[in-house]
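Summary for the steering committee. The consortium agreed at its last meeting that each partner would contribute one worked example illustrating the joint modelling workflow. Our contribution is presented below. We chose a case with several input lines so that the handling of multiple components could be demonstrated. No manual editing was applied between input and output; the record is shown as generated.
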Amino acid sequence: MNLALKDIRFKFGRFLLTTFGISLLLMVVMGMGGIYRGLIQEATLIIDRAGADIWVVQKQTKGPFAEVSSLPRNMEYRIAAIEGVESACAFISHTVQRDFQGRVIRMTIQGLPDDGQWLPLLKGRPLRESHFEMLADKSAQLPLGTRIRLGKDTYEVVGITGQMNAPSGDAMVFVSLDDALSIRNDIPAEGIRSEREARVRRFDAMPYGSTSAEHVEILRSASKRPAALPGRRISAVLVKVREGWNKEEVLRRIRELPDVSAYTADEQRQIMLGGFVARSRRQIRLFRTILLIVSTVVMTLVLFMLTMDKVHDIAMLKLLGARNGVMIEMILTQALLIGCIAFGVARFLGQWAYPHFPRRVVLVAADLWLLFGIVVGVSILASVAGVVKAMLTDAGEVLS
Amino acid sequence: MKQALLAENLCKRYGRGDTGVTAMDNVAISLDTGEVVALLGPSGAGKSTLLTALGLIRPPDSGRIVIDGTVVFDNGYKTDVRAFRRSNIGFVFQKANLLPFLTARENVQLPMELDDISGGKSRRRAMELLEQFGMENRQGFKPSELSGGQQQRVAIARALANCPKLLFADEPTAALDSVMGRKVMEMMKRVAHDFQTSVLVVTHDTRALDVFDRILRMEDGKIGEK
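What follows is the complete predicted structure of the assembly.
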């Protein structure tokens, strides 16, 4: 006769409510762990997906994610010319915030050197045209066919990706490299005109004889002539090292360029984890620890109260000559059942709830097993209070 | 007749100094096998203290208790009281004290299972006991679904589950009407004769004293025969 199960069946409603309450608590603990993992994954997602061996960024910056990095467009050709470089590809990443259909959307615009076939597409297709097409992450909540104005052009969403968020948590949208440059370097016509005029004025101020009328014409001419404004800037250059070449050697050669800094993918990952998201990681880890302590206290209190409710029955069992093991088994079984079922319910509810969280929640099997172990440990620990109470219960309490 | 219980020089005092109360003052009591004895006395006379001492629930300060030839207390417990109680002593109280989450049959079955008697055997014996007390058709009911009298009958059946040498009852009829109270007292008598169990009933109820073989009276911690 299993007394624990019979007692649970007798007070099934209370058992369900208690278990449900603890499961909600565990769901939050689980979610916190998931957010922690999600933060790490988002921080390193594009670094991992890009598959570059070396990231080349503006000199003495830790860009392009941890801080702003700006390189001239032609940097990719300079890098490509270095011995040992298989390919060099411009990388553009910048975040925009727009009001769209009555809501605020934040997007990290990513320039694609290809059609984005490699992206995890949930709906739609990769980019087919060189311009004005966009792949948007599901979290941007821009359905297929949505048209959105960015800079001077309107872009149509042709594909929806899943789980592509920037380190900041914002949804990533992918456009062609040239489009990304256009969006990033969008300067109003009046700004260009003003700059041209400013240049002419500076030109006029130069000593007579050092300028010519033809130069003025050039400064005021169309875009194929020397530009009125500096060239478009990119965020970084992604480098693939040629097979058979030592990565360190290529890195050393790139670092010899006076106007760039270069990092391996691992270094770039460390920059993100050690700097960009380090504070958030520590905060979440601390919060998760506090939640675990709170859960332990709550579970201990709940199980102790459940035991307190049974003091009279425990006294009766003692009077009937029940061994201590009977009471311990009863309390421990209930504690473990509450803990394990609450964990299962939390896992189930989490599966439904976490996708609705604004930040990505990544549940890792190792984390879940660890949490399960902690829950079992906490259940045992929590039942100790109940067991101690049961052991101290006097059989004579039946008479009172 | 064989002696089922012999207790001598039992003393118990609560508190210290001038405020202390002597609950048992050199109490001596014996019960023969199959004997049914009533213990009367006013509140505070020490009846419940004696019952808890004889039932090995709370030890007296001093004295000696022999149950069925085994010295279980001699100025200290001489045996594993819980195990001894499980096999040799049954209790019935004013309230039935049935475990609320078990059915009538399971409540009767429980002491046997605690004594490692197999499920099938304990189930059969529990049904036999319930039949003897006319409760077989209520065997699947939870205590909350039974009347006070029915609960008390189940409690008596439970007390007899392990064929105890002694059955102690503390005011078993206090919560029952006179008809049911008398029935319960008669059950005690039947139990003593059928199961060869010695029964000591602490009671205030003087309406059914005729069923007892002997009546003891306790006052101010001392015991005497009426």
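The radius of gyration of chain A is 32 Å. The longest helix of chain A spans residues 12-50.
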